[in-house]
Write a structure and sequence with these properties.
It is a single chain. By secondary structure, the chain is mainly beta. The chain has one helix at about 55-60, and strands at about 1-10, 15-20, 25-30, 45-50, 65-70, 75-80. A hairpin with a 2-residue loop joins strand 2 (about 15-20) and strand 3 (about 25-30).
Length: about 100
């Protein structure tokens, strides 16, 4: 499903950032994953969502869902996987001063 056309506003070793109308969003890269060289800051890309309805039941770590980015100038496509976002859902550790149960 096409979400929108967005602009790449930064590329880092662990994230790809896009922007539309002043709103930025970061997409996590998996370990060892790199953004193709065709993708440069300022380039326009189509952002597509490919959801996985089973992720709600089996967990994001096993999700087959992803976002795809189609570079409009070259036609090259690139994916970021939903499972790469699993770290954001890890439970926080108990505070050191928490009462013992």
């Amino acid at each position: 499903m096409l979400v929108d056309k967005v602009f790449i506003n930064w590329i880092g070793p662990t994230f790809l950032g896009v922007e539309r109308n002043g709103v930025s969003r970061a997409f996590t890269l998996e370990e060892g994953q790199v953004v193709p060289p065709e993708f440069k800051e300022g380039d326009e890309v189509e952002l597509h969502l490919h959801g996985d309805p089973m992720a709600a039941m089996w967990g994001i770590e096993k999700s087959k869902g992803y976002y795809s980015f189609k570079h409009l100038a070259s036609g090259k496509e690139f994916k970021t996987w939903h499972r790469a976002e699993a770290y954001t859902l890890d439970p926080l550790p108990e505070p050191k001063d928490a009462p013992k149960k």
